[in-house]
Amino acid sequence: MALQPLIRKIQAEDIAVVDKIIRQVMKEFECIGPGYSINDPEMHDIHAAYQGEKSAFFVIEMGGKLLGCGGYAPLNEAEEDTCELRKMYFLYPLRGLGMGSKLLDLCINEARKAGFRFMYLETVLRMEAANRLYVKKGFKLLPAAKGNTGHGSCDSFYELAL
Question: Which domain holds residue 82?
Fold first, then answer.
């Protein structure tokens, strides 16, 4: 019987593993150095950073191991009705199982319930599968960045009307 992935909210004891997941994926896609989310202050305690009413962070567990993560929070220095999809990264064993679509749907639905009208995200073109997923889910490519994420090294910006 195949193991079924489980999506759940992040817990404090997940912090170190989530940090490793994010760093491993960012390194794989050469997204290290200034201007990438790997340098965000929330990386020091990603659990605490998503405890507000208008944010949530999820992990994906399979076979007792954390293999992916992602969440949303208000977009810094933007309209109050806009949130940002943040740190959606999957290790290789989780890729291709449809979990990106499921986690993204969960984030979209929860953000809508939290009162957001738009979801924004930043990525890089070389994350080709992620870009295809965003377009498939209805995200529209923007000509420039919105808000103030500090991710000046990203080259692709998307928004979805919720």
Answer: 6-161
